[in-house]
Amino acid sequence: MHLGAQKLALKQKEAKLAAAFPKGSRCQKCLEYGHWSYECQGKRKYLHRSSRTQVLKKNLNKISAKK
């Protein structure tokens, strides 16, 4: 087996193991670590995000303030 192919196979094996054990993964529902979203028993947390328009306006104001 070619050396590059061995490295690729090892990397793929490690990726599969990492996917099987969500130790470092963050749940997209409750934002806690250690489990997947479909396993989640917690409630969905509200995460406020600025709209894209607000972000663009803020960035434009920064740019115009620099000039």
Pick out its properties.
mainly alpha, Znf_CCHC_sf, Zinc finger CCHC domain-containing protein 10, 67 residues
Q: Tally the helices: what do you get?
A: 2
Give the radius of gyration.
21 Å
Total beta strand runs: 0
Tally of individual domains? 1
Q: How many angstroms separate the termini?
A: 60 Å
Helix percent reads 40-55%
Low-confidence stretches: none
Largest sheet: none
Q: What's the order of the H and E elements? A: HH
- Overall body shape: flat
- Broad structural category: mainly alpha
Percent range for β-strand residues: under 5%
- Indicate the mean pLDDT: 83
GO molecular function, one term: nucleic acid binding
Protein name: Zinc finger CCHC domain-containing protein 10
Organism: Anopheles farauti
